[in-house]
Amino acid sequence: MTTLQQAIEQVKNAGNKAFVPYIMAGDGGLSTVKPTILSLQKMGVTAIEVGIPFTDPVADGPTIEMAGERALAEGVTLRNVLETLASFRHEITVPLVVMTYFNPVLAYGLEQFASACVAGGVKGLIVPDVPLEESAILRQTLNPHGVDIVQLVSLTSPPERIARIAAASQGFVYAVTVNGITGARASFADDLEGHFQRLREMCQIPVLAGFGISTPQQVVSMGALGDGVIVGSTIVEALHKGNVAKVEALVAASKGTIETSTPL
Q1: How far apart are CA 64 and CA 36, in angstroms?
Q2: Beta bridge mates, 229
Q3: CA distance between the termini of the chain
Q4: Residues 77-112: pLDDT tens digits?
Q5: What is the Cα–Cα distance from 125 to 56, expressed in whole angstroms?
């Protein structure tokens, strides 16, 4: 069992749901990366998805896209994010999952990127513009360094493709809960429960729900479908506005320690 999967399984065994916040690295400058990660791990998150700003973020909605633009304006790159992570690696106690696109990885150099991931404590990688059929190059390069390649599965994926994604994904399966890009949603598709039931039957590793989850109520309801949730746009916006209480409430909801009707 990999480090990333083990962290999720430990949360499951304790009777809770995994909570993975997404942050845009360098939104506010590189100096924000360390305090943000240390603050989140102190709240008790399961892992942290570290987004890398990119000029053509095809999977991202407006909130994350704008955060990426702010980070790019600060000169943030894949290289200096990984160097920053390495600078406080000994203080990081939760698995980090880098979310980036393939172009920066290719420009970095696959082997050099893998080595930098090890130095920065990265245990997982999400590259949404690399389809399953092309992902072997990532596994071949990153797996020997202890980095999982997390695959995304969409609502429209046919059963045979879901089975192949489930077999290839490592750490956890990222189950996209909406048809479209990231961003808060007021409601979700009616047959999500059936979709997740089929997913869990096919998957030998944890299944986490992501995209559109933005409230404590949704953390609870969406988390109940699988093994936990990934929350992105709402976290990014809250951190940008300094609303730490909102982030804390979302994390607490995954542990069942607050009333989910608490207004935010």
Answers
A1: 16
A2: 19, 209
A3: 38
A4: 999 999 999 999 999 999 999 999 999 999 999 999
A5: 18
pTM attached to this predicted model: 0.92
Range 226-237 average pLDDT: 95
pLDDT surpasses 80 at 263: no
Catalytic residue among 60, 65, 148, 227: 60
Helix residue ranges, H only, 109-211: 110-120, 136-142, 159-168, 192-202
pLDDT class of 256 with cuts at 50, 70, 90: confident
Residue 154, Cβ density class (10 Å: 0-12 exposed, 13-18 middle, ≥19 buried): middle
What residues are paired with 208 via a beta bridge?
174, 228
Rounded to an integer, what distance in angstroms lies between the CA atom of residue 91 and that of residue 208? 26
The beta-carbon contacts of 115-118 under 8 Å, at least 24 apart in sequence, are 115/145, 116/79, 116/82, 116/83, 116/86, 117/82, 117/142, 117/145, 117/147, 118/145, 118/146, 118/147
Catalytic residue of the set 27, 49, 65, 227? 49
Cα 195 to chain centroid distance, Å, stands at 20
- The model's confidence at residue 59, banded by pLDDT at 50, 70 and 90, is confident
Beta-carbon count within 10 A of 10 CB: 12
Percent helix / strand / coil, the chain, rounded to 5: 50, 15, 35
- Based on the number of CB atoms within 10 Å of its own CB, is 90 exposed (0-12), middle (13-18) or buried (19 or more)? exposed
- If you search the block for the tokens 């080595």, which residue do you land on? 115
Is residue 129 flagged as an active site residue?
Answer: no
The question of whether 49 is a catalytic residue gets the answer yes
**Closest alpha carbon to 22 in 50, 59, 43, 58:** 50
